[in-house]
Amino acid sequence: MIVRHWMTTSIVTIHKEASIQEALGIMKQGSIRHLPVVDAEQQLVGWVTDADLRGVLIASMLEELSLEDVMVRKPHKATPDMPLEEAARLILSKKIGGLPVVENGKLVGVITVVDILSAFITVLGMLDSSSRVDVKVSSSAGPLDEITRLVRKGQGEVISICHLSAVEGPDRVYSLRLKKCDLKPIVDELKKHGFEVVASSP
User: Fold this and answer.
1) Domain match, 40 and 112 both
2) pLDDT tens sequence for the chain (202 residues)
3) 48 and 95 belong to one structural domain
4) What is the rounded distance in angstroms from the CA atom of residue 140 to the CA atom of residue 172?
5) Is residue 98 located within the same domain as residue 133?
6) DSSP class per residue in 50-119
7) Rounded Cα gap, residues 13 and 42, in angstroms
8) DSSP H helix total and E strand total for the chain
9) Domain harbouring 143, CATH code
10) How many structural domains is the chain composed of?
11) Are residues 80 and 106 located together in one domain of the fold?
12) Residues 81 and 20 in one domain
């Protein structure tokens, strides 16, 4: 997955000479929390958030401030062909809500936490009617092929598989999302072959 396929391309932008109040009004009208600042050629020159603007709102009433005075001049950026995982790591590590997407200096999109969440939920099949089974396996074994074989034997069809790395201890847990089905025969098959089913959701 790459940023290009999930970014927002209908971008609301603003120029650096705009006032704080004007920027806040645009954000409120568009229900957005990030505002790219561009020049006449759509070159990205800055980035502001609603938190940035609210932090200087009172000061802007006492003195004349423009976006140029408060914008981030060198924001973290994504490119259209950046892997979505890399953009997600950048957003998480910098504790920011989104990134401008720039190609050859020109703003072409915006990717936000909501866009990334939507992408991963879609890929995992969580928006479709589905079932889930979580299976614990020994760290010394590599039984994923066997697990999927048993799922198929129980008339299940795998949509996605996730390794739940946050689980403590030497064992691993795989979470399998399946097309909506009766989980009982699948769970029975897994248990019969020595696998521990730690959770399931019909």
Assistant:
1) yes
2) 899 999 999 999 999 999 888 999 999 998 999 999 999 888 999 999 988 888 887 766 657 778 888 899 999 999 999 999 999 999 999 999 999 999 998 999 999 999 999 988 887 777 677 899 999 887 555 688 889 999 999 999 998 888 877 556 667 888 999 988 899 999 999 999 888 898 888 7
3) yes
4) 10
5) no
6) HHHHHHTHHHHHHS--BHHHHSBSS---B-TTSBHHHHHHHHHHHT-SEEEEEETTEEEEEEEHHHHHHH
7) 9
8) 8, 8
9) 3.30.70.260
10) 2
11) yes
12) yes
**Residue 61 Cα distances to 27, 58, 66, 73, 156, angstroms:** 18, 5, 11, 23, 63
Q: Range of 166's domain?
A: 128-201
Output the six-digit token pair for 62: 């006492």
Q: Model-level pTM?
A: 0.70
Q: What are the CA-CA distances from residue 130 to residues 121, 165, 180, 200, 201 (Å)? A: 12, 22, 4, 11, 9
146 and 62 share one domain: no
Q: Yes or no: say if 90 and 113 are a contact pair by the CB < 8 Å rule.
A: no
